[in-house]
Amino acid sequence: MSLLMAAVFVGGFATTVPDDFAPAPGLPLLLHVHGAVFTLWVLLFVAQPAFIARGSVALHRRIGGFGAVLAVAMVVMGLAATYYSVHYNRVPAFFPRNIFVVMNGFGILVFGGLVAAGIVNRHRAEWHKRLMMCATISILGPGLGRLLPMTSLGSAAPLVLFGVIALFAFAGPVADLIVRRRIHPAYYWGVSTIIVSELAFAPLAFSPLGAALLRLVGTA
User: Fold this and answer.
1) Is the peptide bond before 23 cis (omega within 30 degrees of 0)?
2) Residue by residue, what is the 3-state secondary structure of 130-178?
């Protein structure tokens, strides 16, 4: 799963990276830092289970401390990048601005909450690995949005994106049913958090709270 999700991130952002590093018009430093922080998370997410697979538990735990700090940086940079994109009208055309600000803003907070739960359960391996996987699934949107033909999907684009994220979320519980004959309780919390947050994005976006967030962000 970590390799599959890394492929989504790499494949998605590979479609924009050449232009992202072009001298003109170029991206602001904020978005480059944002990209670097999220890239480090993807690398860490692939490396950590690899360390466990080869028996390097002590190394996994040492690097885990860096991962906790990195997760905090991701929440900060995710919120900052969302603010910048909305404020300076860099929102993809297939996303209404109110859905974009709610989806990205609350989505990164869902990621932070799931990572925090994973850290709290770091000594319970079966809980820890599932919660960390769910946390990473919750931020698949930007990578998937660049892989999927979003512009040709029209108004259905957000629903298709949420549906693909849900497929990733349910992959873990399905694997549990096949291998363990039961779903681990961590998935009830992690997957439910992802699905509930996805279902809540649209109502929140078109609520007074969504309108207030747009006014708060403003437009340059």
Assistant:
1) no
2) HHHHHHHHCCCHHHHHHHCCHHHHHHHHHHHHHHHHHHHHHHHHHHHHH
Q: How far apart are CA 94 and CA 116, in angstroms?
A: 32
The number of angstroms, rounded, from the C-alpha of 31 to the middle of its chain's C-alpha atoms is: 16
Q: Which residue has the tokens 């925090």?
A: 116
- Examine residue 114 and state whether it is found in any structural domain, yes or no: yes
Structure pTM?
0.89
Report the domain count for the chain: 1
Tell me if 8 sits within 8 A of 147, measured CB to CB: yes
Residue 146 falls inside a structural domain: no
Q: For tokens 């999220």, what's the residue?
A: 38
The tens-digit pLDDT sequence of the chain (220 residues) is: 999 999 999 988 888 776 666 655 667 888 889 989 999 999 999 999 999 999 999 999 999 999 999 999 999 999 999 998 888 888 877 777 888 888 888 899 999 999 999 999 999 999 999 999 999 999 998 888 888 888 788 778 888 889 999 999 999 999 999 999 999 999 999 999 999 999 998 888 888 988 888 888 876 5
